[in-house]
């Protein structure tokens, strides 16, 4: 059973390390360690990893940590499989991402990253997962129009 104390929970610890806002660049080793933990013990740590990442994504006042949270989330989405994808959807991480975009006050690069991730997931995940993601229609909701006719 996962530790109840977030400070002692390995998923929260790894997310804290991966999103430390004084890192010069993403710590890929920690991102891989988080993926390994989630894949090895999903029932114990999968939900915790998603919840921890969602908390970090919400930190607008720490744009570096927020950016690293998106990088870590992207890494987990690419490496942790369908159970992780379902948990991201169930915990409304995508909704939180779109609320950030729609609410404004984001660094332009963070806003762009959110839109790129949602678009990528909507087009690359299996159809049953993509339907849950694509209902956000990120570009339609924020007024981004494709320049190609």
Automatic annotation (TrEMBL):
It comes from the Eukaryota. GO terms for molecular function: phosphatidylinositol binding; ubiquitin binding. Gene3D superfamilies: 1.25.40.90. GO terms for biological process: protein transport to vacuole involved in ubiquitin-dependent protein catabolic process via the multivesicular body sorting pathway. This is Predicted protein. Belongs to the TOM1 family. Residues 18-125 form the VHS domain. Transmembrane segments: none annotated. SMART domains: VHS (SM00288). Pfam families: VHS. The lineage of its organism: Eukaryota, Viridiplantae, Chlorophyta, Mamiellophyceae, Mamiellales.
């Amino acid at each position: 059973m996962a530790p109840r104390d977030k400070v002692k929970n390995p998923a929260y610890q790894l997310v804290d390390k991966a999103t430390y806002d004084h890192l010069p660049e993403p710590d890929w080793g920690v991102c891989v360690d988080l993926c390994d933990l989630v894949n090895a013990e999903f029932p114990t740590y999968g939900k915790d990893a998603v919840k921890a990442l969602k908390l970090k994504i919400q930190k607008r006042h720490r744009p570096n940590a927020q950016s690293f949270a998106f990088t870590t989330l992207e890494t987990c989405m690419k490496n942790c499989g369908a159970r992780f994808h379902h948990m991201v959807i169930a915990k409304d991480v995508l909704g939180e991402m779109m609320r950030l975009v729609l609410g404004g006050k984001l660094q332009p690069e963070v806003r762009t990253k959110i839109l790129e991730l949602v678009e990528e997931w909507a087009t690359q995940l299996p159809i049953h997962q993509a339907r849950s993601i694509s209902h956000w229609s990120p570009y339609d909701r924020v007024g981004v129009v494709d320049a190609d006719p």
